Sequence to fold (116 residues):
Amino acid sequence: MNVHFDYNADCCDGSDEYDGKAKCVNTCSESGKVWRDKLRKKISTFKAGLEVRNRDIERSKLTIQKDKLEVANLKLEEKKLKDVVKKLGGIYILIFKLHHELTVHLHMCFSVYHDY
Fold:
């Protein structure tokens, strides 16, 4: 704090005048009240924002858990479907071979029949 000696109080309590001859009302309490009220309002706003943020974080955690469960279920379903595709592929190959054998057999039968 600077001391001025100009008998003009620059501080709310006149403490910048060393000899106390400055004639001013001590307004520090009132100035402090306004400042404290602004600070309380700012703190209240920050607390409200923090509550919203924390609520959003909890919602996000739940969403992440649900998504992880869904991914696990989809991976299980994918495995089941791959197994089905593998089985169907084997069945397709078997059907293709049987069809080929049947076709060959029928050709042989018809060619024998036509030879008579």
